[in-house]
Hints:
The protein is α+β, with helices and mostly antiparallel strands. The chain has a single domain (5-181), classed as Peptide Deformylase. The chain is 23% helix and 33% strand. The chain has 3 helices and 7 strands, in the order βαβββββααβ. It has helices at residues 27-40, 132-145, 156-170, and strands at residues 5-6, 45-47, 57-61, 76-98, 101-119, 125-131, 180-181. The strands form 2 sheets. A 5-stranded antiparallel sheet has the order 2-3-4-5-6. The longest helix is centred in the last third of the chain and has 15 residues, at 156-170. It starts with a strand and ends with a strand. Cobalt (II) ion (CO) binds next to helix 2.
Amino acid sequence: MIRPVYIYGSPILRKVAVNIDSTYPDLKQIIEDMFETMHHSDGIGLAAPQIGLSIRLIVIDASPLEEDEATMKDFKKVLINAKIIERFGEKKLFKEGCLSIPNLREEVEREESIRIQYLDENFIPHDEVLDGIPARIAQHEYDHLEGMLFPDRISALRRKLLAGKLLSISKGKFDVDYKFKLAK
Ligand code: CO
């Protein structure tokens, strides 16, 4: 089932999400819905707060990037209770977008590599080093679990220049073809 994506200004996007265990209700369905919602909206990553659930659950499917980078074909993951242990390597700029902030893309600076621990959909633990685009996506989605959004990571000046645009996004002044939910 496709679920509405919560839009910038929704308080849930600013909450720190909580860990879950395997008894969390309807988890399998939620994960399936998140993939469906993400694919429908042409996203490559989605965090549970973006569908209104303040839990530490992320889905990633970078296969749409395969044309640019062949290795992305198989970068498809469920990350539960993810924890970034270390960020390292050169800091790089990359233009990011977010389904919760439609029609806005900005250069965001992040480390090139991370070490991340998480549980997969079967609650099997993983401890991995990610580099490049996978590290970029994981860091963006991880921020969602911490109540952070990518405009928090751009310069104060740039953010000030975008304030009006962000306000109109929060009021629904954008054009997308996926279901969304504005703050009340
Ligand atoms: Co996002």
